[in-house]
Specification:
The chain is α/β, with parallel strands linked by helices and 321 residues long. 37% of the residues lie in helices and 21% in strands. The longest helix is centred in the C-terminal third of the chain and has 26 residues, at 295-320. Residues 1-21 are annotated as: Disordered.
Length: 321
């Protein structure tokens, strides 16, 4: 299922009036990380390393690369490590400076230099919509981006920048969409869409949170990138809890979509899901293989290791017999 083509019967959207440029990002990071227990008993899941950086640093780097210089972390209890990571570590920095270890010194300083980082606690974990609502005072009446830490977008992709361009041209809110197999759509929010005059942009007419495959309106899943109009706060404030007894961002966007103010950017690039154990491990392997300093040696070892597995399988079958 490909993105609707501009030649479809729906007329292209008229360009919207220029809107205020987005400069703030919100990163919800209050989840308990239960799928990674016991590793996340005392360590935030967002701080689990992906090669040699915590997952959440990749997300903040993506926001900074798209020009968002103000980042609000919505955290919870036992998340102090996130705050510490994006702060200066003066004793460590001094020790590295004394040794003349400029490479590690820059690596330690980089997180604090990416953007102006702020923190607020969500308190009760009442869902993604509630986490976004917690950002209302900081965001004010400006449009803003939301980046979920479980979804890592490859640094070579320009998804967030493209979404910001669509918001600038069309106003309203913009969600990132990716086509997934029918048997996986129940894991995501799912969008009903109509074509626009741009090949990678659709108008979102409805949203359903984690539908059954037979009732899903499409195969377009909402992935963890949003550019939201501040009007979403008023909707989040008054909608009742939805699926799982939580305040769902999907439900608020469904109401906005009914008014014709939500668009989707169809993404076909490289995305890594670190919210699942197996996908997390695959992400680490992929990114390690692509690193010029680690990739050649690691890839050679990996080939040898996999070949060893293949050689061992017949012997294991013989033993079982």
């Amino acid at each position: 299922m490909s993105a609707p083509h501009p030649s479809d019967s729906s007329a292209p959207d008229a360009p919207a009036a220029p809107t205020r440029r987005v400069r703030k990002a919100v990163v919800p990071a209050a989840g308990l990380g239960t799928r990674f227990l016991p590793a996340t008993k005392a360590t935030p899941k967002e701080m689990l390393p992906v090669v040699d950086k915590p997952a959440i640093q990749y997300v903040v780097e993506e926001a900074a690369a798209a020009g968002l210089d103000d980042v609000l972390m919505v955290t919870g209890r036992h998340k102090r490590a996130i705050e510490d990571h994006f702060d200066h570590a003066f004793e460590l920095e001094q020790a590295l400076a004394t040794k003349g270890d400029t490479v590690r010194l820059d690596a330690v300083r980089d997180p604090a230099r990416l953007a102006s980082i702020h923190h607020i606690r969500q308190g009760d974990p009442l869902g993604l919509g509630h986490a976004v609502l917690c950002a209302r005072r900081h965001v004010g009446d400006e449009p803003f981006a939301v980046l979920l830490g479980d979804d890592l977008i490859d640094q070579r992709e320009a998804l967030l920048s493209r979404m910001l361009d669509v918001r600038d041209g069309r106003g309203g809110s913009v969600v990132a969409l990716m086509e997934v197999p029918p048997e996986q759509i129940h894991l995501y929010g799912c969008a009903a869409v109509e074509p626009t005059g741009e090949e990678d942009v659709v108008r979102v007419t409805g949203l359903v949170e984690k539908p059954a495959p037979h009732s899903a309106p499409s195969r377009y899943a909402v992935i963890g990138r949003y550019v939201l109009d501040p009007g979403v706060f008023g909707v989040l404030e008054r909608i009742p809890p939805g699926r799982g007894g939580e305040i769902q961002l999907t439900d608020a966007l469904q109401e906005l979509a009914a008014g014709g103010t939500v668009h989707g950017v169809v993404f076909e690039g490289r995305r890594y899901d670190t919210g699942d154990k197996a996908d997390y491990l695959r992400t680490v392997v992929r990114l390690t293989c692509e690193r010029p300093d680690l990739g050649p040696e690691f890839t050679a070892w990996l080939r040898e290791f996999v070949a060893g597995l293949d050689d061992a399988r017949p012997a294991r079958r013989d033993i079982a017999a």
